[in-house]
Structures are given as structure tokens and as C-alpha cells.
């Protein structure tokens, strides 16, 4: 029985450490806030917001419940051991084996112990240095990521998009939802570099292009942000389509600017001014929280404004199509010659390498 006691005590310690690392208590606090919001009489007046909150509740419950059940089952096993009943030894041995197996399965969650890893994502791609080639590179990255989203059964929709003057896309912003969406996609945040023979150059010369990928947890409500109304400037204007055509006849497009950091979000995709404003505020909150995380700032007042430009020297990953074929992550040193597979959405090895090595060594 003594060996059994040692095993269950060690397992209890490991599980408690994991629960602390995963910040389960904070997740439960957030869950309670969202559950209380869902009980308000006006909750379903905005169906899209309500569905988003209900999904977040379900995600938080899925994240916390297995650990709480495992913790309670271990406590029950410890209580049974305290009875010192030899007739229970075989049952207890089988129970400890089962609980150990459950812990091994749940340990994968430790890779996603960040406070926002369970969140949905606001995912943006911006053309950088490289002109038309860079805008085409954005469209290539968009195709790569949307195929990856499909492989992971993530839901996604384009919130805003600006097409290039000649080809490609100047910028695009999507909402991505799915299990561990931010935890998986945060590795993609940064500047991505493409080297290839340019299809837009008359002499078919080699061209280097850059695009910046911005990955932010989607923030609907957060106790970590204190945005003052006086720090926001809201502009309303007429929505316009590509080439200047009018999308509708009302002033429904909205631009929200956070004056202290000069971060601005403009949305015109939705039909109503209220919907566009709510979406712009959600993206703005996400941008401010991501900036706060990146700069390790205690308050919004300490933020210095957004940084790395999409150009040489800032890249996290290089995709080389000529004179050889290689994709290499400059942070983890993981590389592959299977460029076509990567551009077709096979980026999970890069994500795994980041989670397994880079995160735990920094």
C-alpha cells in the first residue's frame, strides 16, 4: 500500500502543478463572468454576440472540466487509501493506472498553458516590402492558412479585405474559431519572407517579398483591458467597394481609433453601423491586448504603439522557391524542402516545433 500511496501522491502533485500552469482558476473566473452575462434579459438581442459568448462558455467548460474531474477522482482515491483497507488494494491499483493514463492524455494541454490559448483569433495578413509581388504573397499566404484552417476543422470568415491595385491583396482580416485556435496559430505571428522568380517582372527576375501576419486572441470582454471612452475616436463614413463603387447608401462604415497608441480599425463589411462598430471595437481590443502582451506592459498607458515593419531583417520564416526550394523557421531552425506541401496548408510541423522547442526555451 505504501508504494500505491507514493504513486497517487506524486500524481496529485503533478496534476495540481498542471492546473496551476494552465491557470484553470482564472478560466473558471472568466467562465463565471460569461455565464452571468448569458443570464441577462437582453443577452439574445444581439444574436451574433450571444452565439460568440455561448461558444466561449462551451470552450472554457471543455478546457476546465477534464482537469477538475481528474483532480476530484484523485482526491477520492487518496480518501480510499486513507481507509487502509487491504481488500481495496486491487481496485485502487486499477484506479491509479486509469488516472495516470488520463493525466498522460491531458498533459498535451500543457503546451497550451497561455492565458488566451483557448480563445478564437483575429487573423490579419498585410503586404510589406515588394510591391505587387508582396500583395500576391498575401493572397498565397491567405490560401495556405485557409487550407490549414479547413484541415483543423476551424470555422473562419473574412471580416475585411483590401484588394491590390494590379493583383493580390493589400490586407485581409479574418475571424478564426476552433479548439485551441490562438494556442495553435500564435506561432505564425510575424513577418514572412518569400523568394521566387517574379511573375510580375518582365525579365522574370528573382524577387524578395514580405508580408506581416498578425495573430490576436479575439477579445469580447477582458478584465485585463481598461479602455477609456475618452481615448476613443469614432468616425462614420460611407461604405465603398473596390474601385470606388458604393456598397450601400448609408453611412455604415466605422473607423475606431485608440488615440494614445494611434491604432485604428476600420470596418465596412456589415450592413449596419452598430454591427461595424462592435466588430471594430472587438478587433481594437484584440490589437491592444496583443500589443500589451508583446511589450509586457502593465497598463495601456505604457504602450508605445505597434512595431515591426514587414521588411528585411524582421522575418520569422523564409519561403524560398528559387534558386532552391526550402521553408525555414528562423526561430526554431525547423526546415523542409516540401515548399508545395507547406503552401498547400501543411504547416503543423512548424507549429509543433515552435510549441515543443521555442516556447519552453524562452
Structure explained in plain terms:
By secondary structure, the chain is an alpha+beta fold. It has three domains: 2-112, Methane Monooxygenase Hydroxylase, Chain G, domain 1; 121-218 and 307-361, Alpha-Beta Plaits, CATH 3.30.70; 229-302, Double Stranded RNA Binding Domain, CATH 3.30.160.20. Helix content is 42%, strand content 20%. The chain contains nine helices and eleven strands. The chain has an eight-stranded mixed β-sheet. A three-stranded antiparallel β-sheet has the order 6-7-8, with helices on one face. A hairpin with an 8-residue loop joins strand 4 and strand 5. It is globular, with a radius of gyration of 24 Å. Residues 242-249 have low confidence and may be disordered.
Query: So, CATH architecture of the largest domain?
Result: 2-Layer Sandwich
- By CATH reckoning, the class of the largest domain would read Alpha Beta
Helix content: 40-55%
**What is the number of beta strands?**
11
Low-confidence stretches: 242-249
As for the CATH topology of the largest domain, it is Alpha-Beta Plaits
Helix and strand pattern = HHHHEHEEHEEEEEHEEEHH
Could you outline the blueprint of secondary structure elements for this entry?
Blueprint: H1 2-21, H2 24-38, H3 47-81, H4 89-106, E1 121-127, H5 131-151, E2 155-163, E3 169-177, H6 181-185, E4 190-197, E5 206-217, E6 232-237, E7 253-258, E8 263-267, H7 273-294, E9 315-320, E10 326-329, E11 335-336, H8 339-343, H9 348-358
Parallel strand pairs: 4-9
Antiparallel strand pairs: 1-3, 1-5, 2-3, 4-5, 6-7, 7-8, 9-10, 10-11
Helix pairs in contact: 1-3, 1-4, 2-3, 3-4
